From TrEMBL, chains A, B:
It comes from Brachybacterium equifaecis. This is Succinyl-diaminopimelate desuccinylase. Keywords: Hydrolase, Metal-binding, Zinc. Its EC number is 3.5.1.18. InterPro entries: ArgE/DapE_CS, Bact_exopeptidase_dim_dom, Peptidase_M20, Peptidase_M20_dimer, Peptidase_M20A, Succinyl-DAP_deSuclase_DapE. It is an enzyme of class 3 (hydrolase). Pfam families: M20_dimer, Peptidase_M20. NCBIfam families: dapE-gram_pos. Residues 175-274 form the Peptidase M20 dimerisation domain. One of its GO terms (molecular function) is succinyl-diaminopimelate desuccinylase activity.
Length: 368, 368
């Protein structure tokens, strides 16, 4: 490191550590200072880890020769700041809340993982800790894409835990997601003489009709219910106020259960729109992740958490799908309500930090 | 006039005069040089006219005490130039064409009117000639709006002829036009959890469905068929690729027959969309114009033109509606195909110029 990094104290109270991490601004593309601080903290406080730096990603792992290896990962970056830094504390309706960009997505999870990476010197399973950059941007820029390509051995594990916000519950797997552009073509004409044209906006009518009437599948996998969603998330068309438009298009977003491949998902959307005179093009897709809750390391994790912990399906796509693609069952587990991610009022209940920390410590045998 | 205007020779061959007028560029807002030239030509060559200048509009009239007065009007401005100036001549498929911005809309008509204003020194009816500015822009900026307000006596007439392109046929009256914004509201949500939101784009589905199924009325008035049109000319909605949008809107354009008032037109659109949970707002409207072909001066005009002249309804809105609003029946009559107006390849058949000129001369008793 050629420049001074703000110091992090991984042995501080978990709330203090979380605030230290939040207050190092790290909007996607600007993660270096935080990566430096995380790396410095690990090098200073976790001699039991093999540590490697890759761009603005910090990789660390125990090499104890255990039978199983669990990977815990959290991204360092956030979406743009919205006047919500530095962090602050408040009490609302009797609940103490930590407020600030990244508190929920997902520096609370990063703080818990960083503290446990330092504390868990002799775990029963080998542990891999990944603090990575560029998650809140295009998938191709996500540093896990690079790590998987260049250092795949760092992602090898029997089970993975991603610190995405789950309100300190467990959210298993995730749905896949696909974007499709549906385009209708017509024939331009003056809007006072529409009979010589064909209105492309009107031609989208049956597309919207089928979407509005669509009944989405609910898939139950390992006891978790994944509710599919098929929606138009954008629509556009029109040339001028006096012209019948010759082109109109809708952007569809299909969120499909993790038992469905992107190929099957595309075929399904084409079936939903079958017979309509529109062009359909897939512009983006990512497979989901099966929860894998019946695997041995997942069962051990859930047992350690205890009865009181909520277990649900993860509806939104997360990087757990990257681990699933490598054959590693993965769950999301972190402080904060995922619905507050990216909002201007991003915050977490302070109690979620301790709840996550205690649960993971119990699983790692650090807690009575 | 404080500056030199390019000279126009209103006694030149009609093709030459048209080219002179086209070659004085006069995109809306830049009409002064052309208005100066028209005014100078009238002052030099038409001592029988009372001439007045108002902004960049040139007003002229005979004051012969005739029983009837006919108003002939043409706008001086054009839409922006598209590399199609100066004018040029070409022959395609054996047809000689005059090419250039404004040739069709509507400097051909202006040239014919300017020439006749000079030639018709002793017409059987009194004549008012208006060469006006700012037609191709917002109605409020159209100089006829100002003339009607400040000098309404200049618009008084028993019949009006507007030199808009009609391929040298007569197009009577015009349909009205109305724009409406139709907005659907929903509830935003993450697109992986659509059940907690309401998709506003999907809520536009029944709107498009009714528009697509709409059977437009055909109104026959004075033997002319006005075909109504109701269309979505624009549609928009969408917040982000992963968000269920809480707002979507369509812009509708309703072109209604001239026997229908704007109030009736609005009521009709509201009836078409009755029962749908959308907001409907009229953002712009203009009444149409009845053709008035059964009035005495109109009959005299049509008789003079002779049997060979095509007589149709005008489908697009034109300034004839302004005269209709003053109680003056009005028709469109000018060289060029209206479908070529505003196009990059704007042009007219050269023969249309002579056809319009000869027909009007016959009506004015200048032709055998």
């Amino acid at each position: 490191m050629n420049h001074a990094a703000p110091a992090l104290d991984p042995r501080a109270d978990i709330l203090d550590l979380t605030r230290q991490i939040i207050d190092i601004e790290s909007v996607s593309g600007n993660e270096r200072a935080l990566a430096d601080a995380v790396e410095a903290a690990l090098r200073a406080h976790a001699p039991h880890l093999r540590i490697e730096r890759d761009g603005d990603t910090v990789l660390a792992r125990t090499e104890l020769g255990r039978d199983q290896r669990v990977l815990l990962a959290g991204h360092l970056d956030t979406v743009p700041v919205a006047g919500n830094l530095p962090s602050s504390l408040r009490t609302r309706d009797g609940v103490e809340e930590l407020v600030g960009r990244g508190s929920c997505d997902m520096k609370g999870g990063v703080a818990v993982f960083l503290q446990l990476a330092v504390e868990a010197a002799e775990p029963d399973v080998d542990l891999t800790w990944i603090f990575y950059d560029h998650e809140e941007v295009a998938a191709a820029d996500n540093s896990l894409t690079r790590i998987a390509r260049e250092k795949p051995q760092w992602l090898e594990a029997d089970f993975a835990i991603l610190g995405e916000p789950t309100s300190a519950g467990v959210e298993g797997g995730c749905k896949g997601t696909m974007k499709l552009e549906v385009t209708a073509h017509g024939k331009a004409a003056h809007s006072a003489r529409d009979w010589v044209g064909e209105n492309a906006i009107h031609a989208l009518s049956p597309v919207l009709e089928r979407l509005a009437a669509y009944e989405a599948r609910r898939a139950v996998i390992d006891g978790l219910e994944y509710r599919e969603c098929l929606n138009a998330v954008a629509i556009s068309g029109g040339i001028a106020g006096n012209v019948i438009p010759d082109r109109a298009s809708a952007t569809l977003n299909y969120r499909f259960a993790p038992d469905t491949s992107p190929e099957q998902a595309e075929a399904h959307v084409r079936e939903v729109l079958a017979g309509l005179p529109v062009d359909i093009e897939v512009t983006d897709s990512a497979a989901g992740a099966l929860p894998g809750l019946d695997t041995a390391p997942a069962r051990a994790f859930l047992e350690a958490l205890g009865e009181g912990v909520r277990i649900d399906a993860k509806q939104g796509w997360t990087d757990v799908a990257r681990f699933a693609a490598l054959g590693t069952p993965a769950v999301n587990f972190g402080p904060g309500d995922p619905l507050l991610a990216h909002t201007d009022d991003e915050h977490i209940p302070v109690a979620d930090l301790a709840a996550c920390r205690t649960a993971l410590r119990r699983w790692l045998g650090l807690e009575a």
